[in-house]
Structure prediction request, 230 residues.
Amino acid sequence: MIRRNATKLKTQMLKVKTNVVIIFFLVFLLSMAFGCARTVTQVLDFGTQMGVSVKFREKIDVTNNRYFMVLSTSESFSIALPPPDSMDEFLEPGDLPQTGSIADYYTDYYSTWSGYIVVDETGYYINKGPFFIGDSTTREVLSTLPELTDTISFNFRLSQIFGSTIPDTIYFDIICANYPNGAEKFLKDHIAPPVRTISKVSGSLASGSVAENTVLSGSQDIINWAVEVQ
Prediction:
């Protein structure tokens, strides 16, 4: 009788242990399932606007300079670099170089741009590509020119440059070029290299500081910048 009861007790204990193992295994499976569900249902919030701030060593000069932000969907987009890297001028699409072929500017540079923002003595403007030789370029007013300081700041809708299809990665450069009437116009300062990029995910931020270049006028010398997708 005692041996039979001992056997029965061992059987019951074995069942309890088995049930406990099964319960722990089920709990583990459920936790894994909920964890996977949380990962799968995570949704990224994509921004619709971009905010830009650029600080110069001294107050900007919109009479003698123009200030640009060029944007592209391509890492290999090109801009005209100053001598000795290139003898090409830095020009807005539609402006004519003092020497050389305007067709080369469209082939080498403007064909790689998605669009650009420009600041001059009349205000802030945005111009969406693509750019083709012979086509008229129409600036869209972004904002009026505020009181001049050492900082340029502006916001724009990403669709104003890229249309309805915003790229996952946006490539850009920020540029100051001298822009005298009737004379050659060259890039003076910019924030690349390296190639600058930012994600279209809302809250993405790209920023940097640039060593002062006292060879340049203070109105041409970029010292820090920040770009945010909102």
Observations:
- The two ends are 80 Å apart (CA to CA).
- The chain has two domains: 1-42, 49-229.
- The helical segments are 2-40, 102-108, 159-162.
